[in-house]
């Protein structure tokens, strides 16, 4: 029997590889993007309470009504946009599921999809699984801004979709209003669709405006907008996210969603609905919370030989290690984990054609003691 892989070039993700290496080496794991501190105690208590009440069976396929209503209220508060919780909001098993389903809803054989490298590693495989072709546009250090003229030149009659991610993983770049307007113009001009990956939407720093595809009416009408409660509430293991899209697009999205996970973690949906209703200050305070961690981590690394690139959002810090080593970034990350017990992620793995640079990514969504211990090791290099 001959088996032909649909994704022949792919193996285990770099996140799994580096986390496994960190565990084997008993290293401080600043590679995979998850917090090492406790979730809100009231949220955890609500989860236990709803589970104890017996709310442990299938939720409605698009999500429980109270959560979808709270999502609609959150979008109204943050962006001034009214969405219909019944027809335009779908709860998903994490943002990655939502991205796969949205791509599947739009992409057919022969379609082209523009993505920006360094890109989250689920985009290209989902495009390939649906018979599409990812068209990679590289963003470059130090600021990783999008050149919209280059994007316009990459659009062909086969272009179906543009995928954007702001705040951007792994670079921390955040779209300006001019970026959103340029994207909206191209989508309308060329009759395209957009998937806006906004899982770090509440982590925008330095008092910059928090903007979303939700802010731009014409763009929102042609977009799937994806977000993550795992990121917002420090519970990545709950795998709970959502997708907002116009009713026609949501209908197509749900056709696929119902055969991927059907429904998502029921007691967690009730617990998060409670948090959004009663503890909305946690969402509002998320930017300040992570900005303090960004600034603290930067201060801890001030005496190191790393050069820190500016982080506008997310909970990731890029650093240039050129002054320390001539190793490529994959080899450097392995060396750093094995020899100095701090794990990071190489940036080159997020590119189709990696640039000639020595830049890696640290996650600073960690306790101060974790960041302090890591910095002590890093400052010795």
UniProtKB/TrEMBL annotation:
Q: Which UniProt keywords apply?
A: Aminotransferase, Pyridoxal phosphate, Transferase
Q: Where is the Aminotransferase class I/classII large domain?
A: 27-378
> What GO MF terms are annotated?
transaminase activity
What cofactors does the UniProt entry give for this protein?
pyridoxal 5'-phosphate
The keyword Oxidoreductase is assigned to this record:
no
Q: Cross-referenced InterPro entries, in alphabetical order?
A: Aminotransferase_I/II_large (IPR004839), Kynurenine-oxoglutarate_AT (IPR051326), PyrdxlP-dep_Trfase (IPR015424), PyrdxlP-dep_Trfase_major (IPR015421), PyrdxlP-dep_Trfase_small (IPR015422)
What is this protein identified as?
Methionine aminotransferase
Organism this protein belongs to? Rheinheimera muenzenbergensis
């Amino acid at each position: 029997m001959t088996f032909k892989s649909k994704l022949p070039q792919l193996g285990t993700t770099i996140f799994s590889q580096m986390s496994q290496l960190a565990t084997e080496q008993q290293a401080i794991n600043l590679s995979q993007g998850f917090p090492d501190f406790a979730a809100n105690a009231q949220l955890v208590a609500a989860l236990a309470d709803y589970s104890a009440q017996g709310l442990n069976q299938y939720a409605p396929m698009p999500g429980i009504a109270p959560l979808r209503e709270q999502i609609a209220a959150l979008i109204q508060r943050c962006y001034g946009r009214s969405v219909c919780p019944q027809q335009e909001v779908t709860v998903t098993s994490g943002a990655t599921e939502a991205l796969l389903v949205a791509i599947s809803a739009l992409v057919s054989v022969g379609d082209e999809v523009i993505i920006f490298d360094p890109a989250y590693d689920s985009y290209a495989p989902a495009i390939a699984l649906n018979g599409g072709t990812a068209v990679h546009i590289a963003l470059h250090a130090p600021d990783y801004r999008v050149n919209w003229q280059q994007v316009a030149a990459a659009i062909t009659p086969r272009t179906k979709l543009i995928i954007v991610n702001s705040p951007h993983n792994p670079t921390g770049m955040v779209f300006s209003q001019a970026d959103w307007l340029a994207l909206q113009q191209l989508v309308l001009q060329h009759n395209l669709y957009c998937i806006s990956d906004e899982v770090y939407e509440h982590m925008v720093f330095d008092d910059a405006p928090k903007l979303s595809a939700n802010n731009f009416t014409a763009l929102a009408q042609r977009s799937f907008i994806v977000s993550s409660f795992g990121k917002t509430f420090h519970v990545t293991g709950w795998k709970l996210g959502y997708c907002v899209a116009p009713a026609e697009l949501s209908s197509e999205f749900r056709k696929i969603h119902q055969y991927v996970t059907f429904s998502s973690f029921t007691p967690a949906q009730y617990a998060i609905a409670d948090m959004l209703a009663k503890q909305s200050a946690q969402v509002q305070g998320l930017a300040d919370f992570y900005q303090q961690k960004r600034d603290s981590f930067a201060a801890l690394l001030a005496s190191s030989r790393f050069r820190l690139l500016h982080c506008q959002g997310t909970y990731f810090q890029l650093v240039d290690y050129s002054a320390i080593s001539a190793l490529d970034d994959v080899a450097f990350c392995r060396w750093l984990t094995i020899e100095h017990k701090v794990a990071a992620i190489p940036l080159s793995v997020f590119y189709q054609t990696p640039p000639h640079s020595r830049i890696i990514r640290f996650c600073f969504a960690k306790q101060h003691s974790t960041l302090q211990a890591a910095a002590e090791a890093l400052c010795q290099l």
